[in-house]
């Protein structure tokens, strides 16, 4: 792929979301804030598709597929609002390489992932097409970022000291009983 825009439609380049990057104070591609932190940020910046996408990712990672779907759906609609405000007319590139576009693309991806988890196949197909037509590299870039973030989180978790439970004076190795088998 040459990277040429064959549609002749100029790429949509969103403006940065004022205050959101500063509020996060960490790179969301490197470390996902806690759910409580994200909810507080969403209250401050309810139009941020990035924050809704991150909240959807956090919920999905916690096994909460339906809330993830709902959060991603809000992020998707906030993203459409931002795209339209940015001059997008329903077609044309939305490059991942332009960082302010990433909230919209991550919302699309999060909605696609949650839709897949609830077997909403038509939505998965539509969102895959939307992402691919927006930027053919977006899905791979998002999955790579999420993979590396989960690897860093796992490494951080294993490196942090565990809190030892108080030892009991009657502690012993549990015996396995075969009675009743």
Please outline what is shown here:
By secondary structure, the protein is mainly alpha-helical.
Cα-based radius of gyration, to the nearest Å: 21 Å
CATH class: Mainly Alpha
CATH topology, which one? Serine Threonine Protein Phosphatase 5, Tetratricopeptide repeat
**SSE series:** HHHHHHH
What class would the helix/strand composition place it in?
mainly alpha
Instruction: Give a quick account of the main beta sheet: strands, pairing sense, barrel closure.
Output: none
Low-confidence stretches: 163-181
Overall geometry comes to globular
> Helix coverage percent of residues?
55-70%
Strand content: under 5%
- The appropriate CATH architecture is Alpha Horseshoe
How many domain units? 1
Alpha plus pi helix count: 7
Straight-line N-to-C gap: 63 Å
Secondary structure: number of strands: 0
Mean pLDDT: 86
């Amino acid at each position: 792929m040459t990277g040429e825009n064959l549609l002749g439609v100029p790429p949509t380049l969103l403006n940065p979301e004022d205050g959101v990057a500063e509020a996060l104070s960490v790179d969301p591609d490197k470390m996902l804030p806690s759910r409580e932190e994200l909810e507080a940020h969403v209250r401050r910046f309810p139009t941020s598709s990035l924050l809704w996408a991150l909240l959807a990712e956090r919920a999905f990672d916690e096994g909460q597929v339906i809330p993830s779907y709902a959060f991603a759906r809000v992020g998707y609609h906030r993203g459409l609002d931002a795209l339209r405000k940015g001059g997008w007319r329903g077609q044309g590139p939305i490059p991942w390489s332009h960082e302010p576009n990433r909230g919209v693309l991550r919302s699309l991806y999060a909605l696609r992932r949650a839709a897949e988890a609830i077997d909403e196949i038509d939505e998965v197909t539509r969102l895959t097409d939307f992402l691919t037509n927006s930027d053919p590299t977006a899905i791979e870039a998002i999955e790579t970022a999420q993979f590396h973030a989960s690897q860093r989180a796992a490494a951080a978790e294993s490196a942090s000291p565990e809190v030892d439970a108080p030892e009991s004076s009657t502690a012993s190795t549990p015996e396995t009983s075969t009675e009743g088998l």
